[in-house]
Write a structure and sequence with these properties.
The structure holds two protein chains of two kinds. By secondary structure, chain A is mostly beta strands. In chain A, about 0% of the residues lie in helices and about 60% in strands. The N and C termini of chain A lie far apart (about 40 Å). Chain B is mainly beta. In chain B, the strands form two sheets. In chain B, strands 2, 4, 5, 6, 9, 10 and 11 form a seven-stranded mixed beta sheet that branches. The model of chain B has no long low-confidence stretch (mean pLDDT about 90). The chains are: A mainly beta, B mainly beta. Chains A and B meet through strand 4, strand 5, strand 9 and strand 10 of A and strand 4, strand 5 and strand 10 of B.
Chain lengths: ~110, ~110
């Protein structure tokens, strides 16, 4: 059974700091891994998608890496801003049989001005 | 492209009533997924559907919950005889399928059972 774990559960940093969010998954049989952002009371916004054959993806100040063999992904946020405050969710898209996203519980990020 | 559309955004039901949640996938997407998010918890998979077929309903409670994705029209998640514990945010996602494409989520329906 695929399990996705995110560390830390919460993170508070001063504005301008670079930070790393961690995600680990137990089953390497995945199609891809997606990082999402969720603001309080809102839906999920897709940030980055990494295919299983890729090592990393970049979008603006965000960089996500994937190491399938070790079951790890990281989301790097450069020069954090108060507007980055949100919950960040990692989800692994399972292969075989039923395809579905399995989510971690998220990291709640607060960037202080 | 309007994205994944869910309605209603908020739904209040009394205990024992039925709740119907609707999801229109993105244009060109034929795969729909429903997730439930309880307060302060992660998203839990409920059901995966393709047009007219339920592919995986392993996350659906055995009673009172059902889902469909007809040939025409939106996907429907139906909860009969709602109880207080059904209060949650229900999210729908769609993709083109094949497992190697991006999943897009709707804004969710927040169900409150009073």
């Amino acid at each position: 059974k695929q399990e996705v774990t995110q560390i830390p559960a919460a993170l508070s940093v001063p504005e301008g700091e670079n930070l790393v969010l961690n995600c680990s998954f137990t089953d390497s049989a995945i199609y891809n891994l997606q990082w999402f952002r969720q603001d309080p009371g809102k839906g999920l916004t897709s940030l980055l998608l990494i295919q299983s054959s890729q090592r990393e993806q970049t979008s603006g100040r965000l960089n996500a890496s994937l190491d399938k063999s070790s079951g790890r992904s990281t989301l790097y946020i450069a020069a954090s801003q108060p507007g980055d405050s949100a919950t960040y969710l990692c989800a692994a898209f399972l292969q075989g049989g039923s395809e579905k996203l399995v989510f971690g519980k998220g990291t709640k990020l607060t960037v202080n001005p | 492209n309007a994205g994944v559309m869910q309605n209603p955004r908020h739904l209040v039901r009394r205990r024992g009533q039925e709740a119907r949640l609707r999801c229109s996938p993105m244009k060109g997407h034929s795969h729909v997924y429903w997730y439930r998010q309880l307060p302060e918890e992660g998203l839990k998979f409920m059901v995966y559907l393709q047009k007219e077929n339920i592919i995986d309903e392993s996350g659906m409670p055995k009673e009172r919950f059902s889902a469909e994705f007809p040939k025409e029209g939106p996907s429907i998640l139906r909860i009969q005889q709602v109880v207080r514990g059904d209060s949650a945010a229900y999210f729908c996602a769609s993709s083109r399928g094949l497992g190697n494409t991006e999943a897009f989520f709707g804004q969710g329906t927040r169900l409150t059972v009073v």
